[in-house]
From TrEMBL:
Entry superkingdom: Archaea
The protein's name: FAD-dependent oxidoreductase
Organism for this UniProt entry: Sulfuracidifex metallicus DSM 6482 = JCM 9184
Annotated Gene3D superfamilies: D-Amino Acid Oxidase, subunit A, domain 2, FAD/NAD(P)-binding domain
Family matches, as SUPFAM superfamilies: Nucleotide-binding domain
Upper classification of the organism: Archaea, Thermoproteota, Thermoprotei, Sulfolobales, Sulfolobaceae
Domain called FAD dependent oxidoreductase: residue spans: 137-304
């Protein structure tokens, strides 16, 4: 099959790697997004997302994408059924008092790593800005104004927060939003461990992982905003920035160095979606704040759907049929 992938971020690059084994695949991407060099991959999720994260990890390993494992500490009450689920997927956990945090925590080993996303997304891309017109059963696909519809057997839309701008003619159940994190200087342990603090409401991860005094911290807050067409991201007003930083400083002696952010995308139930939306168009989207965790797994489900017709209903786009408008909720990787 000749397959055109629209958007070569985490999902598009995973799709490219999986589908290129059997098909002729091209990735179309105007490179308007700068990816963070590394992102958290965590198995410490809920429900079927844990299975999807497991599949993602298998994909990273299959395509030799570097992962740097870290121990993590989860603060706050975690349901015993969730802990058992993590253990079933090979994560070692124990409850322990962590002196440098000053709290009891769930220490997890084998569940978290930072993934080299730059390496994952380093694939051949044709620098094309795509627009897709949805009409009856067909998607008409244009790249830099030139129609490509007949040049491919099928297309896959995987342009993250740009998806809803690319598609014209019909509404798709996706909304873009802005999400931020801050680089801070503080205790060196924070560059050695990942912390999910559900008591105060923030997470932290190593910046470099070499025991420097630098770490990255943020929360899962959502600021609805359109993605930039020209790739120049204009930071919106972040109303809760001071509040989140003060929460981090309640726990640790730390100071902010800089704030960074980027675009994310959510669905009506905040879970990712995949499926077929036209005879010649599939979609994989709505990865919100955990695309490195579940994105490659969802790309695999999409490939299995295209090639064998296999469906995993939990993530199918059909669940949103009839939904006209919606508000974004809480990110699903938060417990
Ligand atoms: C501050 C911050 C921290 C985060 N931390 C983590 C983390 O630690 N772990 C984690 O799992 N997730 C994290 N995320 C979320 C993660 O970045 C997203 O879930 C993920 O990038 C979504 O992947 P995607 O492939 O759907 O889209 P993207 O990675 O956004 O890729 C979309 C691609 O589409 C392209 N595109 C845009 N317009 C067009 C067009 N017209 N035609 C064709 N292509 C187009 C873009 O250039 C881009 O390459 C974080 C996000 C932010 C903002």
């Amino acid at each position: 099959m000749k397959i055109g992938i629209v958007g070569g971020g985490i999902v598009g690059s995973s799709l490219f790697r999986i589908l290129s084994e059997k098909h002729q695949v091209k990735v179309l991407d105007p490179k308007v997004k700068t990816q963070f060099p590394t992102l958290i991959h965590s198995m410490l999720l809920k429900g079927m997302d844990v299975q999807l994260a497991f599949k993602s990890r298998e994909i990273y390993d299959k395509y030799k994408i570097e992962r740097y494992p870290f121990k993590s500490y989860t603060l706050g009450k975690v349901d015993s059924s969730i802990l058992s689920l993590w253990e079933n997927y090979g994560v070692s956990i124990k409850e322990t008092e962590v002196n440098w945090i000053g709290e009891k925590a769930i220490e997890a080993q084998g569940g978290d790593s930072l993934v080299n996303i730059k390496q994952l997304t380093d694939i051949p891309k044709e620098q094309n800005k795509v627009k897709i017109e949805l009409k009856e059963n067909i998607a008409r696909v244009f790249a830099n104004g030139r129609e490509l519809t007949r040049e491919f057997d099928t297309f896959i839309l995987s342009a993250g927060s740009w998806n809803s701008n690319i598609v014209i003619g019909e509404k798709i159940p996706l909304k873009p939003y802005y999400c931020w994190a801050t680089v801070m200087k503080g205790p060196r342990q924070l560059d050695k461990f990942i912390v999910y603090d559900y008591i105060l409401g923030f997470y932290s991860r190593p910046l470099l992982g070499i025991g420097s005094p630098l770490f990255v911290a943020g929360d899962g807050d959502i600021i609805e905003m359109e993605p930039p067409e020209d790739g120049i991201l204009r930071r919106p007003e972040i109303k809760d920035m001071e509040l989140v930083i003060s929460r981090i400083r309640t726990r640790f002696t730390a100071r902010m160095i800089y704030i960074s952010g980027n675009m994310c995308e959510g669905t009506p139930d905040m879970k990712p979606v995949y499926g077929r939306i036209k005879d010649n168009l599939y979609i994989v989207a709505g990865l919100n704040g955990y695309g490195a965790e579940v994105g490659p797994g969802l790309a695999l489900l999409t490939a299995q759907f295209i090639e064998k017709g296999e469906e995993v209903k939990e993530y199918l786009i059909d669940r949103f049929r009839g939904i006209r408008d919606f508000s974004l909720g809480k990110e699903p990787h938060e417990l």
